[in-house]
From TrEMBL:
<dbReference type="InterPro" id="IPR035969">
    <property type="entry name" value="Rab-GAP_TBC_sf"/>
</dbReference>
<dbReference type="GO" id="GO:0005096">
    <property type="term" value="F:GTPase activator activity"/>
</dbReference>
<dbReference type="Pfam" id="PF00566">
    <property type="entry name" value="RabGAP-TBC"/>
</dbReference>
<dbReference type="InterPro" id="IPR050302">
    <property type="entry name" value="Rab_GAP_TBC_domain"/>
</dbReference>
<feature type="domain" description="Rab-GAP TBC">
    <location>
        <begin position="161"/>
        <end position="371"/>
    </location>
</feature>
<keyword id="KW-0175">Coiled coil</keyword>
<dbReference type="InterPro" id="IPR000195">
    <property type="entry name" value="Rab-GAP-TBC_dom"/>
</dbReference>
<dbReference type="GO" id="GO:0016192">
    <property type="term" value="P:vesicle-mediated transport"/>
</dbReference>
<protein>
    <submittedName>
        <fullName>TBC12 protein</fullName>
    </submittedName>
</protein>
<feature type="coiled-coil region">
    <location>
        <begin position="88"/>
        <end position="123"/>
    </location>
</feature>
<dbReference type="GO" id="GO:0031267">
    <property type="term" value="F:small GTPase binding"/>
</dbReference>
<dbReference type="GO" id="GO:0005773">
    <property type="term" value="C:vacuole"/>
</dbReference>
<dbReference type="GO" id="GO:0031410">
    <property type="term" value="C:cytoplasmic vesicle"/>
</dbReference>
Length: 454
């Protein structure tokens, strides 16, 4: 401390008396006021004998709407005095390049403005259509559901997408309740699930949690998988994450189902189906629709991992794949790329994980109308939409592309491609083709049975 104090005292008078210093020489003391830029310019002209001459008016830029920045400025500005001046030809070329840039920018701006207007018009028209459709559904169709659901008018209106306000109600009616589940039954299975979670967290006693012949390890793994999968369900929405408004609700529906159907348990992909239902229905209604939906033949085959049935569905899909997209079918065959590589994920989650949520809901709308056939028709629609791109890809890139579809896929384009898909082969519809595959399989089993051989 003493050292720095002495140095400060010694240097003080020197600093006061000495003029200021700059990097390349002395300048006037700091006390002097800074000179005006005009005075500095005059002193420079007096010392060097050079006079600053502003460029003639003709050389100045005229009628420029905005000050050019960065590259544009370099195009228009004259070079510094110490560099060779631009030739007339170069100056004209730069001017032309600049004018082209400005014109292109204006063109882009006009195009973007037109695009915004078009989107707003389409949105306004869509809102009007939804509002008018909602009135028809509420006042005419829903009160007379059984009599009107199969009419041509209702089917056409259904194809265009259900209004969000009636979507849940229509889904419930279309899926039905063959299992005769009541809200009270849901509460019973939910209380069982809560008891099981409690017993796992506290004692993990085998006697308390054994049920329906299922092993404790399997049941515990199933419940743990639910917790893990809930956090992965629509992560961008955040509403199903821990602390979100629908986290506990989704956990309850999935937990209750594992108690209701211990033979199926929880399978990855179920969380997305339950989440979509929760977004459109009340808790008990969502569980009823969920249980009945998973009891349909196609969903039951996939969620119980019935390999024989799954292979029949894949075989039926390939029949219509070859019929509708022969070139892409052969391309996939050349790489031995089978439907299970991409279809399993689509079917397990009913496209709710693969497509944007609003588009997935519209797929669900028609799926509830047409049944399992529409799931495979949607798959063919996706392949048709991206056929040209897929034909240029190899095995790895096709698998990656179909596993994670582009996010900019639109409802109009996809449903246009789905509408173009013909679900008919040799005058046989989907149900007939699938039935014939099942029949062939049964006959094959009989022919190969040991009893017949003996």
């Amino acid at each position: 401390r003493n050292f720095f104090t002495k140095r400060t005292k010694e240097l003080k008078p020197a600093v006061q008396s000495a003029p200021g210093w700059k990097l390349f020489g002395k300048v006037p003391p700091r006390e002097n006021l800074p000179k005006d830029s005009k005075i500095i310019q005059q002193e420079y002209e007096a010392r060097t004998g050079r006079m600053y001459k502003p460029p003639p008016p003709s050389a100045r830029r005229k009628n420029i709407e905005f000050e050019p920045l960065s590259t544009t400025a370099l195009i228009l500005e004259d070079r510094p005095a110490n560099l060779p001046a631009k030739s007339l030809e170069e100056a004209l070329r730069h001017r032309q390049e600049y004018d082209e840039m400005v014109a292109e920018a204006k063109k882009r701006e006009i195009k973007e403005a037109h695009k915004r207007k078009r989107i707003m018009r389409e949105r306004f028209k869509q809102e009007e259509n939804i509002a008018s459709a909602m009135v028809i559904w509420v006042n005419e169709i829903l009160p007379n559901w059984e009599g009107m659901r199969a009419t041509r008018r209702v089917r056409e209106l259904w194809w265009q997408g259900l209004p969000p306000s009636v979507r849940g109600k229509v889904w419930s009616l279309a899926v039905g309740n063959e299992l005769n589940i009541t809200p009270e039954l849901y509460e019973i299975f939910l209380s069982r699930a809560k008891e099981r979670w409690k017993s796992f967290s506290e004692t993990s006693s085998e006697n308390d949690i054994e049920d329906a012949g299922a092993s404790v390890a399997d049941r515990e793994a199933s419940l743990e998988l639910i917790k893990l999968d809930i956090s992965r369900t629509f992560p961008s929405l955040y509403i199903f994450q821990k602390g979100g408004p629908y986290h506990d609700l989704l956990h309850s529906v999935l937990g209750a189902y594992t108690c209701y159907r211990p033979d199926v348990g929880y399978v990855q992909g179920m969380s997305f189906i339950a989440a979509v239902l929760i977004l459109n229905l009340e808790e008990a209604d969502a569980f009823i629709a969920f249980a009945n939906l998973l009891n349909k033949p196609c969903q039951l085959a996939f969620f119980r991992v019935d390999h024989s049935m799954m292979l029949k569905y894949f075989a039926a899909f390939e029949v219509f794949f070859e019929e509708n997209l022969p070139k892409l079918f052969l391309h996939f065959k050349s790489y031995s790329l089978t439907p299970d590589i991409y279809l399993i994920d689509w079917i397990f989650t009913l496209y709710s994980k693969s497509l944007p949520l609003d588009l997935a809901c519209r797929v669900w709308d028609v799926f509830c109308r047409d049944g399992e056939e529409f799931l495979f028709r949607t798959g063919l629609g996706i392949l048709r939409l991206y056929e040209d791109i897929l034909l240029q890809m190899d095995f790895i890139h096709i698998a990656q592309f179909l596993t994670k579809l582009p996010e900019d896929i639109t409802s109009e384009k996809l449903f246009g491609c789905i509408a173009a898909v013909q679900m008919q082969n040799s005058n046989k519809k989907w149900a007939q083709v699938f039935a014939s595959l099942m029949k062939d399989n049964k006959e094959g089993d009989k022919n190969h049975s040991p009893a017949l051989k003996s």
